[in-house]
Specification:
heterodimer, A: 270 residues, alpha/beta, two-stranded antiparallel sheet, 7 helices, 23% helix, 21% strand, globular, B: 229 residues, alpha+beta, 34% strand
Chain lengths: 270, 229
């Protein structure tokens, strides 16, 4: 079986837990440094860009990594339909490469700008609720048939620059219509979260994850690898997963709510 | 009531790794090595301070200098230097490190063509050896990148107001100022190159700002004098 390649840019820090989450979903994973030979990447079953601070977020998050030689191959793999998941800093890299939303080939039509929060700025982390958007994406297949908690899953966010934003009226209109919106932040009733803290960064239309036209790429700000096991879920989170967490206190190594993203990937490449 | 207009430029005393990374990325990875000869980065603020009719602007400036050096709102004196230019009515006063020294150092670096050394710590091809046949054809542009978010300016204004014991402060600009030394036969072409280098519209075009939440303006573009070797 070909491997899922986890790309390690200088400064990322979530590559090992991302590998664990991929392996827990039944796939093989390999960490590839940004300056290694690209042979393994060209044969990858899927590519994951993990979270962290590539190039120390110099200039702006994801900007420098997006200009690396390896980004050419990632761009090409996206065009070939290879599943690509960018988590947090990985999402920022995908946005800066122009792979998502991909309305216009190669154009950078989105940004992940600094969080917009009332009376505070900078880094922010908390558990939020994710709901499936109207765009088809292979990574969100696990939502199909899910009815608990108004169709939402809990997942943690941890970032300073997570606000999806665009300067283009056309792109804005298409996002508002739900195009390329794979996941959005939801409130407790399952509605799009318009205000802080349910929408933790002021993201346009509460967007949490954006896909491309073919649905094989997902730029996702929350961290599913940090919700892949039950022991990672806070006891007091409430809802379905809060109950499961309390009921299975003796089996906390079972799957958590974030595992679904990786299960969906497994299903797609199996 | 009149006012003082202040321009504050803050920069690192030691090497600026962000500027180095930007230069290496543009020159070594993105193919601008023949055109972009040097790059510097500064934090930039422009604001006004209200003064009462008979108040001595010199005393207000002393107060401002004390605040700037004793608080870390704008710079940390352990690692930063600053240049402060204040104008009011017919008056003008400058404080801090002269930016002319930085410009001279930059010109000297360009004349020495240090491309290979600066690229040595990253896995990229060094920029090609540059041939500067006509040293009159180098332009230095001051390009200011700002975020389309007035909230940060308001917050800075409130903070400085409280540090200046309630004086009225209004921020006109805060952002990152880039100095770009560009080789070009003429000024208009130099401006075009600077804009292209700045605005990230595609993966292979532009780096310094994402136009979906940032904007820029060229504050000045002038010919750069290089030292003779």
């Amino acid at each position: 079986m070909s491997k899922v390649i986890v790309v390690q840019f200088p400064g990322v820090n979530c590559e090992y837990e991302t590998v664990r989450a991929i392996e827990a979903a039944g796939m093989e994973a390999l960490i590839l440094k940004w300056n290694d030979s690209l042979v393994a990447l060209k044969q990858a079953a899927a590519i994951v860009l993990p979270g962290g601070f590539s190039y120390q977020d110099r200039i702006r998050a994801g900007a420098v990594a997006a200009k690396d030689g390896i980004a050419d191959e990632i761009y090409s793999a996206a065009s070939r339909g290879v599943p690509i998941l960018g988590i947090c800093n990985g999402a920022q890299i995908l946005v800066e490469t122009g792979i998502v939303p991909g309305f216009e080939e190669g154009a950078i039509s989105l940004a992940l700008s600094p969080n917009r929060m009332p009376d505070r700025s900078g880094y922010y982390c908390r558990w939020i609720r994710l709901k499936k958007g109207s765009a088809d994406c292979l990574f969100t297949a696990f939502f199909d048939g899910w009815g608990e908690d108004h169709g939402t899953y809990p997942c943690p966010v941890a970032h300073a620059e997570g606000q999806f934003i665009t300067a283009s009226k056309e792109v804005r209109a298409r996002l508002e219509a739900g195009e390329r919106v794979a996941l959005y932040y939801a409130d407790a009733r399952g509605l799009a979260a318009r205000s802080f803290p349910e929408n933790p960064n002021g993201s346009l239309f509460a967007i949490a994850g954006v896909t491309n036209g073919a649905g094989n790429v997902l730029a996702l700000m929350p961290h599913p690898e940090r919700a892949s096991w039950l022991f990672q879920v806070p006891g007091g989170i409430g809802g379905f997963w809060g109950r499961v967490r309390l009921e299975r206190s003796g089996a906390l190594h079972s799957a958590g709510p974030g595992r679904g993203i990786f299960d969906s990937l497994h299903q797609a490449i199996a | 009531m009149s006012e003082i207009e202040a321009k504050l430029v803050v920069f690192l005393k030691d090497s600026d790794l962000v500027a180095s990374t930007a230069f290496i990325t543009l020159a070594g990875k993105m193919g601008y090595g023949e055109l972009l000869l040097g790059l510097k980065r500064f934090d930039y603020y422009r604001f006004t301070i209200g003064i009462a009719g008979r108040e001595d602007p010199g005393l207000v400036l002393e107060e401002l200098r004390k605040v700037l050096s004793s608080r870390s709102t704008f710079y940390n004196r352990n690692k930063h230097s600053y240049f402060l230019e204040c104008c009011w009515g017919d008056g003008k006063k400058c404080f801090g490190s002269d930016l002319k020294n930085i410009m001279e150092r930059m010109a000297s670096e360009i004349a020495g063509s240090p491309g290979k050394e600066s690229a040595a710590d990253l896995d990229v091809q060094p920029p090609p050896e540059r041939v500067i046949l006509n040293k009159d054809s180098i332009f230095l542009g001051e390009l200011l990148v700002t975020e389309s978010n007035p909230l940060s300016r308001e917050a800075l204004g409130r903070k400085l107001e409280s540090e200046l014991a309630g004086r009225r402060v209004h921020f006109l600009d805060d952002g990152v100022l880039w100095w770009l030394a560009v080789k070009s036969p003429e000024r208009s072409k130099a401006e075009e190159i600077m804009s292209e280098i700045a605005v990230s519209v595609r993966r292979d075009r532009g780096l310094l700002l994402n136009p979906n939440y940032q904007s820029y303006r060229l504050i000045s573009v002038k010919k750069m004098a290089l030292p003779l070797h």
